[in-house]
Known about the structure:
Layout: E1 4-8, H1 15-28, E2 32-36, H2 44-54, E3 59-66, H3 72-85, E4 90-95, H4 99-104, H5 112-127, E5 132-135, E6 140-144, E7 156-159, H6 163-172, E8 175-178, H7 184-194, E9 201-210, H8 214-221, H9 234-237, H10 243-251, H11 256-262, H12 265-271, E10 273-275, H13 277-289, E11 294-299, H14 304-311
Helix pairs in contact: 1-14, 3-5, 5-6, 6-7
Amino acid sequence: MRPDTGVLLPRDLPVDRLLPYARRADELGFSELWVVEDLGFRGGIAQAAAVLASTERIRVCVGILPAGARNVAFAAMEAATVAELFPGRLQLGVGHGMPGWMRQAGAWPASPLTAFEEHVTALRALLRGETVTTEGRFVRLDGVRLESPPAVVPPVLAGVRGPRSLAAAGRCADGTVLAEPAGPEYVRAARAQIGAGPGHRVAVYDVAAVDADPAAARAAVRPALAWIGDPDWDVHVAPLPFADELRALRAGTDDRAAFAAALPDAWVDRLAVCGTPEQARARIDEIGAAGADAVVLAPAGADPLAALDALATVL
């Protein structure tokens, strides 16, 4: 069975193109659209509400709300409101947040893993309509409940990486979001670390470009691969058969642009979804066979809105 194919809404898309982009993704038949909450850009819940109001059927997923930045009771209220208005079309991604951004915002907890697990556990209970009392290290609630919980409870997916965090995702979340690059090797490794039973949904992000000329598709994705050798993302690289060579290339290259330009074509094909429609479709199927329930394509290139039509040829 093929995984669902979604698309990422770029965080820096000009605001006058945001809703046209979402409507076009809906018209083209993508299963889901993921909005991004990165520090300094746009809020995830606000984007999700606007996109849902402007589209007809596409699922809208928020990726990723940092647990340490929000009081869980008020996060539940925001999510429940959107889920009530658009039943069955909202999914939530919740994670630790990027350490650098969270420290900038003064919201990096002393124990990110504990804060994440307490937040997700309480959030899911509140969205189910339960009355929650808990005295955790970071989450403290005294008889809190939603007066109007959503009839269709939105699933909460964990946006985390690393063995301990993925194991926590298996314990407390409805699913897991794996950021790019998420090839079959990383998906299989993450599934083993999650250790969750049936029903735990895994969605993955991958940089993508589709073109009748495979070389043009590779050229489009290369700039988006420039950061892959950075240490913070080594868990994505570690399962790859060329991981040591990739690390050595990054260590021996002066800057990110030069690193991306030096990546062999064969590596680019393993680090992204790119090539002809047939090649990209085969790559999506390979990632799905490794355990991904949804593959979310992050459009590469200068014009994300124009890229949507090319990406839709894989559907």
